[in-house]
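hi!! sorry for the late reply, been swamped w classes. u asked for the two structures so here they r. pasted raw, havent cleaned anything up. first the sequence of the first protein and right below it the C-alpha cells
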Amino acid sequence: MKSIRFRFLIAAVALLLGTALAQSADDAPPPPEHHHGYAMHHRPMMEFFGDYLNLTEGQRTQMKTILHQDFASMQPLMQQEHQIHQQMRQYEEGTFDEAKVRALAGQEATSKVELTVQHARIRNQMFQVLTPDQQAKLKEFEANRDARMQKHMQTDAAPPAPEP
C-alpha cells in the first residue's frame, strides 16, 4: 500500500514539475538525454496539472527552479541505484551469491531512503508554492484518486463470486 502511495506521490510531483518545465521549455536548457523520453511521455499529464491548478507563470518558474536545484542532488543517487541494478543482474543471470546480493540490497535500501526523502522535500517545496486554494484543490484531487485506487484494489482483491 505504501509503495502505491509513494508511486502516486512521485507521479503527482512529476506532473506538477513537468507542467512547470513544459511551459517554460523555450527558456530552459534541454533536459539530459536519458530523461527526455520520460518527460515526453508524461507531458500531457504535467500540462493537465498546470492547467488544473491554474498555475501562474511565477509559480511555474519557482517550480522549475526547485526541480533544477534538486536534480543535482538526486542525480548521484539515481546513478547509484542504476549501478546497483547492474551489479545485481550478474547474480540474477549468473552464479547466485546470497551474501553479495544481501549487501547490494542493503545499499539499494539506503539509496531508496535517500531518494524518498529528496522526493518528499521536492513535493513539500512545490506544495508551498501553491496558493491555499490550489493546495486544497490538489488535496481533493489526491483524495479522490486514492479513493478510486482503494476501490480498484478491493475489487481486484475480492475472490470471484461462486457460480450458481
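now the second protein. again sequence first, C-alpha cells right under
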Amino acid sequence: MDFIKKHYEKILLGVVLIGLIGALGYLPFKISDEKTKLEETSGNFVRPNVKPLTNLDLTVPETSLTRAMGVSVAYNFSDTNRLFNPMQWQRAQDGKLVRTTSTGLKAVSVTNITPLYLKISLDAVTIQSDGSPLYIFGIERQNAATKPLAQKKQVTTKVGEKNATFYFKEIQGLPTTPTNAVIQLIDSGETVNVPHDKDKPWKRIDAYMADLRYDIPKPPKIWANMRVGGVIDVNGEKYKIVAISSSEVILAAFNNDKKFTVKLNKNSA
C-alpha cells in the first residue's frame, strides 16, 4: 500500500498513456469503417435504385381534350364586353356627356399645316433723271405679327445700299434690264439671287401655321391659322402652341408646362 500511495500519480499516468495508445491503435480501423459507410451512402444518392414507371392512364384528360377541340367558342373582349373595355365618356362644353374613344388632347387633330414664307422679288427698274437706275423690290413677311405687317411692301434701292431686310450687292445682266439681283440677307448673312420677275420671287420658309380640330363638341371646334404662341382651350384646359413643324404641332399645358405632340392628320379633308 505504501508503494501505491507513493507512486499513484505515476500509475495513473501510465493507465492514461496505455488508454491513449489503445485509442490511437483503434483510430485507423474506425476511420476505415466510417469511410466505407460514407462511400456506400454517397453511392446510394448518386446511383439510386429507381423503380421503372408504369404506363400512365391518360384516358380521362385525352377524352376531355377531344371534347374541347370539337367545341367552337368565340369570345369578343373588344366591342361588346364592357367589363374589360369600359366605354369612355367626355363632358362637352355644353354640359352633355359624349361617348368617345378619345378624350382631351387625344381628340385634337391637326388638319392642315401651311408654311409661312419670306418672299423677295425684283418687281421693276426705273431710270432717274441722271440716267442711273433704281430697283424696286417687293418684300413679303408672312410670319409677321399682324396682317398689315405680313402684306407685301415695296422698297426702292440702289446697288450698294442696305435696308432692314437685305444688302443690295450687285445686279446681273444689263443695269436697265437685269436678269437677277444679288442680295445678302441681314438676319442670316446668306447671299441669294432674286430673279427679275415679280411673279417668281425668291422665298424661304420662316415658320408654319396650323389648323386644329377638336372632335368632342358637336359641331366640332376648329382653330384656324394658329401660330406659335397661340392658345387653345380643350374642355377648360388651356394649351399654348410652342412649336410647329411641317408634320406636327407641339403644345404645352398652362398648369404644368407638360409638352404634348399632335401629328398632322394626312387623311383630313
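hope this helps!! also noticed smth abt the second:
The radius of gyration is 48 Å.
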